[in-house]
Amino acid sequence: MRDWIIFLPELFAMLAAGWFFLACFAKPNARRDYSTALVFCAFGIAVSLAAVNMHGILFSGTYQINLFSQVFKILIAAGFFLAVCLCKDLGGVDEKYHSEFYLLMAICTLAMMMLVSCVHLLTLYISLEVSSFSLYILTYLQKHGDKQFQTGLKYFIIGATSSAIMLFGFALLYGAGHSGYLAVLSRTLPANLSSPVVLIAFFLSFAGFFFKLSLFPFHFWAPDVYENAPHQVSTYLATVSKIAAIAVLIRLAALCSGQGEKVAYFLIVLSLLSMTVGNLSAVGQNDFKRLLAFSSVAHAGYVLIGILSLSALGFSSAIFYAISLLMMKFVAFMVVVYASVDGKNIAIAIWSSTFGFLKTKNVKDVPIPSHGNYLGGRGRSCIIAFIKSKLFHI
User: In terms of C-beta density within 10 A (0-12 exposed, 13-18 middle, 19 or more buried), how is residue 317 classed?
Assistant: First the structure.
């Protein structure tokens, strides 16, 4: 009985998925689906908080419940709740697909909750793939524009490639450590980190989670997917999937046990490249969600700084940054959701010094002050004016 209790957050996510699976056969009702999803998510956070101090081992030692996994489950449940809070006006998804939308989000949340507790290479891979396939379909649900198929296919191809590379790395880790259990690998691999096979195994194993984190050079899917996916899906991608990726990267990096100097050098290079490419690429964007996508690329480099330290203090810093990232990205996408018209994308505003107005696209009408201190060119977004009008009634 105790085994079922410590598995309670995952069971609750499974219950939510089952409910929306049955709702798929009922008459579409956007208000019903939204209210039900909100209730499930709120109770999901409560269940995750109640299970935070639980410990245990399940499924023949392949699944570990401890404080580390439970904290990340709380963050995942909170991210799911915040993403659903933005679904009251789900303008980017056809109403007849709302039940499927929540079903896929619940399945993805379940997979990510399992991902952060997996301590075996095979269960890690399966959980990652279940969450990825749910996101591939969610990306395709955007009803506006004509690039959904192209975007979904690109996301799928890059994701499948990253998974294949990661699986090859897992195979090498298994061969070098003679086990798929992370606890066993943490005892056998540190002494062999100078071996080229072990180093290559680590580099390849990180690939699938670099893809989730949209770290350079696995970030090429992010701008197109963020731009062409429904706003709520982009919010989920920018928050929940990043938290799960950070959790697993910490687990894999911990296998080095402070002895992975060459692994740290590799991560330093990727971190610097990701920060540089993400920030420089964001400068020239004319779509607000593409800008946020490149912001995620840069943030992936920032969070990797804590992980590459390969120390408990660095891992704690990465967890703190994951919490900050959840709130920052949610607020940014909340503005996108509430400022956009019928779920369409928001164009970056251009200040015209000649005519004295902001050129915007697909943004709700808000009063724009003619005396504002705006930078020339593509520097400022109409989002600033929207926030001012809502908060300060300018």
Answer: middle
User: Per-residue pLDDT averaged across 164-193, rounded?
Assistant: 85
pLDDT tens-digit map of 223-239: 888 888 888 888 888 88
Domains in the chain: boundaries:
2-339, 350-391
What the block records as the tokens of 109 is 């949340």
Q: Is 89 helix (H, G, I), strand (E, B) or coil?
A: coil
Q: 357-359 and 350-352 as β-strands: parallel, antiparallel, unpaired?
A: antiparallel
Token pair, residue 49, equals: 């908080």
Q: Measured in whole angstroms, how far is the alpha carbon of residue 250 from the centre of its chain?
A: 15
Instruction: Give the global pTM.
Output: 0.82
Encode pLDDT of 87-128 as tens digits: 887 777 777 888 888 899 999 999 999 999 988 899 999 998
**84 is written with which tokens?**
């659903």
Instruction: Using alpha carbons only, give the angle 243, 114, 77 rounded to the nearest 5 degrees.
Output: 50
Q: Count of CB atoms within 10 A of residue 302's CB? A: 16
Query: Tens digits of per-residue pLDDT, 283-298?
Result: 877 778 888 888 888 8
- Give the DSSP H/E element, type plus range, for residue 56: strand 56-58
